[in-house]
Amino acid sequence: MTRIKTMRKMQVLIWTVFSLMLLLTHVHAQEGARKISGSVKDDSGNPIPGVTVTVKGTQVVALTNASGLFNLQAPAKSKALILTSVGMRTKEVVIASSGIMDIALEPLSQNMNEVVVIGYGTAKRTNVTSSIASVSAKDIKDLPVAGVDQALQGKVSGVTVTNNSGQPGGGVSIKVRGVTTINSNDPLIVIDGVPFISNTKSNSGYAGLGGSDGQTGNSVMATLNPNDIESIDVLKDASAQSIYGSQAANGVILITTKKGKAGEGKLNYDVYYGQSSVVKKLDVMNLREFAQYQNEVAPILGATPTEEFKDPSLLGTGTDWQEAMFRKGQVQNHQLSFSGGKDKTNYYLSLNYFDQSGILIGSDFKRYSTRFSLDHQLKSWMKIGVSANASRSIQNVTLADAAEGTIWWGAIQNPLIPVKNIDGTWGGGNTISGVRYGQDNPIARSNMRGNKSTNAQVFGNIYADIEFIEGLNLKNEISYSLGMNNNLAYQLAGDIG
Asked: For residues 262 and 340, what is the distance between their CA atoms, to the nearest angstrom?
């Protein structure tokens, strides 16, 4: 009997301890969370439905209902909420001690007082009735792209930017409002008042040698340093383009570069470095799998199996042609600029070096560019200035764009063939015009054939702005542009190795 009583006492004690643990856990859970509720309205006091309310630093999210109200359970240590909504500015607010909040969001439309560039000067956005889209310097800052044209991708509605090739520095196609004619659809590009006709057509006729099939030339935007851009305005409709005439039939892209500003001189140095690689390669057969496949297929086709493939188990993995043709690509950019102004003179000077090597062997792009601008208030009624842009780009085009190019051959090539033979000559065994590589060694083709494009560009303007009376100015401008493009396609005449 005594033993039974002792067991009952132990059961009661265990149940009591368990009940206390549940109670403490419930109290802790209540203390570890707090209820947050409130309303979200615009600057006119109207409720905003569908606003995403997130507890900062957590995964706790709630949406406002049709009346702009929300409720959520936030961790006890939460300090702030982040509210986001389409067409409204993102806002971060401190959680009120009471847990009840009344929040107001500001619309993004407050940029209507911004000044935009148009064909004949500048104007406030509220006064512009034509279709204009703008991209500022902060929108394209720190983008690891070779040219300004690539930086526009996805930034402007109604403007389609397409990379025509994976080649470093490859051509970029820009279409404003889509395809409008069977002829050229390239927009007019105006850089600091200097007009250029975009050209993304093939820049070489050496398709057989250099592999330029499908290769597209670079527009003048690829010669610009993206860090020198102050703003980009895209004119889309006829009223905005009328000042430029028929050249603007496919839209106008106005690019304004940076200038010096009054104040203490500034010295800026920007640099970035990155790497690229093939994320996923084609799943192709190795040498053993290829030998087994050939042994099975050859009798069906009435052919004799290859002697080397008699016993696939004795073979290794063979040549991985994808491994041989692809490498780790690298990109680096260095930008050094000096700017400032004192009294009546403002200046800006920049130096840029861009270097990108592609993931396919033999592909690379280099650009050296500099820009200089000087503005001086000569008289109270006259302002003069000069600007100059100079660039030199060197692009090595591989056989990737050619019909039956490096990538195509690497995907179907026999893994039995080595990249190079023991004596250092190219593997493959075929001899064409004394050159030992043939169409069975894409690595040899890339090394012995090539297409190199060198482009030099200098442009700028000189202007004088005379103010007759307040609001009446006469600006005379002389623009200049000088370009030189050299395409070199070559084919080595002998064997190397």
From this structure: 6
Is this prediction's pTM over 0.85? no
Give the pLDDT confidence score for residue 3 in this predicted structure.
47
| Phi/psi of residue 449, nearest 5 degrees | -125, 150
| Percent share of the chain, pLDDT over 70 | 75
DSSP state string for 49-97: TT-EEEETTSS-EEE--TTSEEEEEEETT--EEEEE-TTB--EEEEPPT
Residue-level length of the chain: 497
For residue range 47-83, list pLDDT tens digits in order: 888 888 999 888 888 889 888 899 988 888 888 999 9
**SS3 of 346, please?**
strand
CA–CA separation, 75 vs 232, rounded Å? 45
**In this predicted structure, which of 96-100, 162-166, 367-371, 437-441 has the lowest mean pLDDT?**
437-441
Q: Which of 393, 412, 414 is nearest to 404 (CA)?
A: 412
pLDDT at 259 over 70: yes
Q: Is 392 helix (H, G, I), strand (E, B) or coil?
A: strand
Cα–Cα distance, 98 to 106 (Å, whole number): 24
The Cα-based distances of 123 to 126, 128, 236 in angstroms read 8, 7, 16
Task: Answer for the pair 353, 270: CB distance below 8 angstroms, yes or no.
Answer: no
Q: Are residues 255 and 221 in contact, defined by beta-carbon separation less than 8 angstroms?
A: yes
CA-wise closest residue to 385 among 447, 466, 441, 443: 466
**305: DSSP letter:** P
**Cβ–Cβ under 8 Å, residues 76 and 30:** no
Are 73 and 60 within 8 A, CB to CB?
yes
Nearest-angstrom CA–CA distance, 319 and 357:
24
